[in-house]
Amino acid sequence: MNSPGHNFSRLVTRAVRRYLGGPDQQWIFEPPPQDWSPPPIERTALYLHVPFCRNLCPYCPYTKVPYDETLLEPYTRAALAEVDWWADAIGPAEVTSIYIGGGTPTLAMDSIASVLKHIRERFRLTGDLCIETNPADVDEVTVRRLHDADIALISLGVQSFHAENLKIIGRQYDPSLAEKALELLAKSDFTSVNADIMFALPEQAVGSVIADLDRAAQLGADQLTTYPLFTFPYTSVGKYLRLSAVKMPALRLRREHYRAISNWCDEHAFERISVWGFKRGAVPRYSSVTRDGYIGIGPGAGSHLPDGFVLNTFDLENWIRAASERRRAIALRMPFKGEMAGWWWLYWRLYDTRIPLDALDGTLGNDAPKARQWLRAAERFGLAVRNDGCFELTEPGSFWLHLAQNYFALSYVNTLWTEARRQPWPKSVAV
Ligand code: SF4
Fold it and tell me: Which atom of ligand 1 is nearest to the CA of 103?
């Protein structure tokens, strides 16, 4: 059953979406029609989902299964076939970046090497390769294999260097493990190393977050992604929080953490590159989600196509069967109506905290005046400033957007993912 807060956030986000997307945009995901196939695409990013983890963290909402060596061969076979399916459908597109997420992708480096080789054979790869990894899975061998696969940007899921915080999020290792992993990655000649750090954990003091940022920077991270505990109701944390009445930190506390993080980053020459992310120096930006269009390979992988969103089946067994047989592994699709593709572009530019004004008209078409109105209102309330042909979110603007995204995720992603988990091929999901 949904909580009153969840129901309220659903109502509010529905009203905003209806206002922005217009009455024609149906917020319903359904199986694509039999005769549907993706349109030809010239340029795209690519997301590869590797669903294996040694330790299933209770707060984690992503598609994952316990690591089992016998699953690697069928997983690889299915991923190779799905690369072919996409290449046949959209043509030999330029792939501008590859993001490998999970799960813990580094548990399947042989699979990844084969899939990357095949992507290079079927597409024109021109951009950087990024990968996520976990402190418990980083050693000299992993580092060598990442270099062998030409992976340039690494993100380490540190979350915290404090034992009490690791315990809250269900990580069963000593903080020194994360320190050693980050130190090793930072001295191993990757183009950039990002550390994920969580904040606003239950009972976490602001000093503990700042100490985590300090430690990550000392150990050599040149990018930092900070994010609060997402309480998707279907994760164990969601259940735990409801059952034991442990409350998420109050808004005031979350604001305090966010402001302290922003100030610390300012003082330590980390520039803001997204609502959650900061980087130091002239390294390419590490980001998992702000690409304008991407195709997704793997169970639960989403694709952002010119004509809408599609989502693969979340169920590993069903995905392996469909992809290996060169059938469509896509379970759900939401087509774009009107200027919806443009609004998604604006959503991700807001996430970047910079909206190039000269691109607004071309991207949002008839809805550009509506978007400008909203941006001017944000400027009046001190949430954005005009700078160098862009609207830039201020620190308060970034915080409120971060909060709105939190509710958006709860309302939209939670509804969609809950249903997609419940059955491999859902009939219809209204978000
Ligand atoms: S947080 Fe990372 S390591 Fe933990 S279950 Fe999720 S994907 Fe796996």
Answer: 7
**Ligand 1 pocket check: which of 59, 64, 168, 314 to mutate, most ligand atoms within 8 Å of Cβ?**
64
In this structure, is residue 226 part of a structural domain? yes
- Determine, yes or no, domain membership for 307: no
Residue 222, by phi and psi: left (phi above 0), alpha (psi -120 to 50) or beta? alpha
pLDDT more than 90, % of the chain = 62
Which atom number of ligand 1 is nearest to the Cα of residue 59? 1
Domain that holds residue 80: 43-279
Note the pLDDT tens digit of each residue in 204-260.
899 999 999 999 999 999 999 998 876 555 555 555 554 454 456 678 888 999 999
212 with 88, same domain?
A: yes
Tell which residue, 180, 248, 249, has the closest CA to residue 220: 180
**∠ Cα 304 308 314 (to 5°):** 60
| 269 and 345 assigned to the same domain | no
Copy the structure tokens of residue 319.
């995905």
